[in-house]
């Protein structure tokens, strides 16, 4: 080959192709890792949202059907999963109010997903 023939060749060298592949592999790995993190966070958010709805629903049920109770646990089904709600009742010192805390865990887990949702139950027998 002559010098003029070599100068007219077009294309990439092997080194340029390898560098391009390395950059592509690095970017692809980063995108896949970030996607996995987003899916993980979305699942956690979905569980916390359902747990918050369960607590709000339970406190609403207690306000519609007032009762005086000791601490107890109840099981509910929502989002195709079993949830356990733990009620804790305490005296407020006020004869007309009782303090209620409801926390929620998935029935197959011990991780509390929603807690410190407080409500105050009015005593109904003082009307």
TrEMBL record:
The keyword Transmembrane applies. InterPro entries: N_methyl_site (IPR012902), Pilin-like (IPR045584), T2SS_GspI_C (IPR003413), T2SS_protein-GspI (IPR010052). Type II secretion is composed of four main components: the outer membrane complex, the inner membrane complex, the cytoplasmic secretion ATPase and the periplasm-spanning pseudopilus. Residues 45-115 form the Type II secretion system protein GspI C-terminal domain. Keywords: Cell inner membrane, Cell membrane, Membrane, Methylation, Transmembrane, Transmembrane helix. It comes from Pseudomonas alkylphenolica. This is Type II secretion system protein I. It holds the Pfam family N_methyl. Belongs to the GSP I family. Its main location: membrane. It is a single-pass membrane protein. The gene is gspI. Cleaved by prepilin peptidase. Component of the type II secretion system required for the energy-dependent secretion of extracellular factors such as proteases and toxins from the periplasm. It is found in: Cell inner membrane. GO terms for biological process: protein secretion by the type II secretion system. PANTHER family: TYPE II SECRETION SYSTEM PROTEIN I-RELATED. GO terms for cellular component: plasma membrane; type II protein secretion system complex.
């Amino acid at each position: 080959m002559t010098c003029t023939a070599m100068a007219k060749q077009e294309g990439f060298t092997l080194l340029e192709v390898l560098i391009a592949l390395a950059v592509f592999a690095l970017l692809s790995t980063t995108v896949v890792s970030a996607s996995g993190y987003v899916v993980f966070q979305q699942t956690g958010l979905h569980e916390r949202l359902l747990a918050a709805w369960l607590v709000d629903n339970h406190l609403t049920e207690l306000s519609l059907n007032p009762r005086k109770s000791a601490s107890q646990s109840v099981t509910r089904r929502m989002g195709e999963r079993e949830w356990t709600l733990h009620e804790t009742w305490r005296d407020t010192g006020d004869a007309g109010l009782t303090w209620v805390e409801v926390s929620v865990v998935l029935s197959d887990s011990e991780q509390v997903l929603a807690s410190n949702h407080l409500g105050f139950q009015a005593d109904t027998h003082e009307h």
